[in-house]
Amino acid sequence: MSGMPSLEAGRRRVAALLGLPQLHGRIHQLERRVESLETQLHESREEAWERSRTRWRAAEPTRNLTWDVELTGGAFIDRAEHHGAFGEDRHIVEVGPGYGRLLEAVIERRLPFAGYTGVDLSEQNVSHLSQKFTGEAVSFVRADVEEVRLEQPVDTVLSSLTFKHLFPSFERALANLAGQMGPGGLVLFDLIEGSRRYFEEDGVTYIRWYERGEVEELLGRCGLELVAFEEVRHHPTLARLLVVGRRPT
Ligand SMILES: C[S@@+](CC[C@H](N)C(=O)[O-])C[C@H]1O[C@@H](n2cnc3c(N)ncnc32)[C@H](O)[C@@H]1O
């Protein structure tokens, strides 16, 4: 039967021409996504909270934490400096330091501080940062921001690209930090502006967007007042809403 293409080979060629294998692949992907959404629908809030921590507990200190782009912390630190976040007598806490780009910018600019503590959920991040930054006044703690107990009253809280990942919102984290801030203490963190919330397709990366009114309400519930809404541009194409808050004196 040589020379005569079989019926099956012909069918395969027609299917390929119509793009059917790709379509099957996409349908299979969508089926898996629907199954995972169904599971999410029936899980408790505690289970979802636990899931939202999975990725970060295992995070590695690489640029994967910043969209696979090696970013500097300069833009964020410029805004923090403008608001008086640094000073010889100030104890600074950074939530979710990742691979340390904010602290690197602080050191490059020789900004003063009495202490700088990075709090991160990932053991690997903390171990990497402890080896990279060995200054006496710098330390790192592996802890969840919702529960961490700090040794000193906090004067400044900084957090970049992290509060948007806190499930179900950043309120418990901020309340925990605000309770350890001295009067006049400052907090600067960034968010995505809007009103969506979802787990990404990986099933473990939670993202919540916030409206400005909602942010002001959350600050108020934590005993903080709004200083300003600004923009922080981490990269020419990546701008975020920067929230600046303060504990009243
Ligand atoms: C998207 S990365 C941002 C890293 C860094 N802030 C930056 O802008 O380059 C989020 C960081 O927050 C940490 N993180 C996430 N949830 C946390 C939590 N509940 N408590 C403490 N750290 C957390 C992660 O381990 C990770 O280092």
Tell me the span between the first and last alpha carbons. 92 Å
CATH architectural type of the largest domain: 3-Layer(aba) Sandwich
Quote the CATH topology of the largest domain: Rossmann fold
Q: Which range does the strand content fall in?
A: 15-25%
How many strands, which pairing sense, and closed or not: the largest β-sheet?
7 strands, mixed
Oligomer: single chain
- Shape by Cα distribution: elongated
Number of discrete helical segments? 8
Can you characterise this structure?
It is built from 8 helices and 9 strands. By secondary structure, it is of the alpha/beta class. The protein has 2 domains: about 5-40; about 55-245, Vaccinia Virus protein VP39 (Rossmann fold), CATH 3.40.50. The strands form 2 sheets. Strands 3-2-1-4-5-9-8 form a 7-stranded mixed β-sheet. The longest helix is centred in the N-terminal third of the chain and has 23 residues, at about 20-40. It binds S-adenosylmethionine. S-adenosylmethionine binds next to strand 2. S-adenosylmethionine (SAM) binds next to strand 2.
Brief summary:
The protein is an alpha/beta fold and 249 residues long. It has 8 helices and 9 strands. The protein has 2 domains: 36 residues; 191 residues, Vaccinia Virus protein VP39 (Rossmann fold, 3-Layer(aba) Sandwich).
Comma- or semicolon-separated keywords:
seven-stranded mixed beta sheet; binds S-adenosylmethionine; Rossmann fold; alpha/beta; 9 strands; 249 residues; 8 helices
How would you summarize the topology of this molecule?
Blueprint (H helix, E strand, L loop, with lengths): L6 H11 L2 H23 L2 H13 L16 H9 L8 E5 L5 H8 L6 E6 L2 H10 L5 E5 L11 E6 L11 H8 L2 E11 L5 E3 L6 E3 L3 H10 L3 E11 L2 E9 L3
Parallel strand pairs: 1-2, 1-4, 2-3, 4-5
Antiparallel strand pairs: 5-9, 6-7, 8-9
S-adenosylmethionine binds next to strand 2.
